[in-house]
Amino acid sequence: MEEAPPLAVRCAGLVKRFEDVVAVAGLDLEVRSGECFGLLGPNGAGKTTTVEILEGLSAPDEGDVEVLGARWGRGADRALRARLGVQLQETLLAEKLTVRETVRLFRSFYARGRDADGVIGMVGLDEKRGARVGKLSGGQKQRLALACALVGDPELLFLDEPTTGLDPQARLKVWEIVAEFRSRGGTVLLTTHAMEEAERLCDRVAVMDHGRRIALGTPADLVASLGADQIVEIEADGELDGASLGRLPGVRSVSPRPRGFMLAVGDIGSGLPALLAEVGARGARLESLRTHQATLEDVFVHLTGRELRDV
User: Core-most of 41, 178, 221, 276, by most CB within 10 Å?
Assistant: First the structure.
């Protein structure tokens, strides 16, 4: 039997409070070495707070944290930080320094690392080497922050919403960089609410809401947990009953939406005609009907009744 890879990150019973808000509420997580692990959830779910605790930037109120076999505050923080790469949601860089000067500055913080110019080229900023940080676009600053996180040649890379504000081409570039980092044996923990990103990059994901983990698994397994290949979203003017919709042929589950329902349908061939017949029998007027293949976002809606992008 093949031995499971060691853990790169482990937290148990993690709790973090801010005045009257519990940002993280008893969270348990394990990230295996060599995997890309995603934290998914809407704004305010506790993703960033969790990552800041794991990075050693914030102390938990309760719980146990272990990163690369070490614990923060045990006298080895400096050595541990040298093994990490961190890209925050917003990285404040000196605006009067050039791109090259910034990456070289970060490289100087580490006893070992990667060639600064090579990392600048890797993130697609070759033409901006001599440009001052203050003159960069938001997307270029995001890629510069990623370069700063990579230049120390980390074992574990933390990425907090790494592609927010990037155009599609730049987003694909970041995905390629993450894949290259993993091909060299690196471990990645990222937060995102972009479903395509999670499905493309992550081996496993944990879905968070209100500081708690509400689902954990591979993207494929979480989608399969819906028991349906197709999702039908319906809005109608009139009275529709969720319990009745759930008893229709081919319908596996029903989740209420603000103006209608989301149905997970295993057999669209029987489920859709039965749904339309039910709408007619109820005397309701159909306003919209959409179908799509089941995604991670549908998993979250099914679990919480809210969209991942809801604030």
Answer: 41
3-state DSSP assignment of residue 68: coil
Place of tokens 């541990």: 80
Buried b (16+ CB within 10 A) or exposed e, 266-295: bebeebbebbeebbeeeebeeeeeeeeebb
Alpha helices (H) along the chain: 47-54, 77-81, 99-107, 116-122, 138-150, 168-183, 195-201, 219-224, 242-246, 268-281, 296-304
Token pair belonging to 88: 């925050």
| Residue 259 tokens, joined | 């103006």
Q: Which two tokens stand for residue 162?
A: 């790494």
For the beta carbon of residue 196, count every other beta carbon within 10 angstroms.
14
Query: According to the 3-state scheme, what is the secondary structure of 149-177?
Result: HHCCCCCEEEEECCCCCCCHHHHHHHHHH
* Spatial separation of the C-alpha atoms in residues 262 and 247, rounded to whole Å: 14
Q: Which amino acid would we find at residue 5?
A: P
Nearest CA-CA partner of 165 in 178, 154, 174, 177 = 174
Return d(Cα 67, Cα 84) in angstroms, integer.
Answer: 9
Q: Are 231 and 268 in contact (CB under 8 A)?
A: no
Report yes or no on whether pTM surpasses 0.85: yes
Query: DSSP string covering 110-131, please?
Result: SSS---HHHHHHHTT-GGGTTS
Cα diameter, the chain? 73
Could you read off the pLDDT of 145-186 as tens digits, one per residue?
999 999 999 999 999 988 887 888 888 888 999 999 999 999
CB 233 within 8 A of CB 290: yes
Q: Which residues contact 67 (CB under 8 A, 6 or more apart)?
A: 8, 9, 54, 56, 80, 84, 156
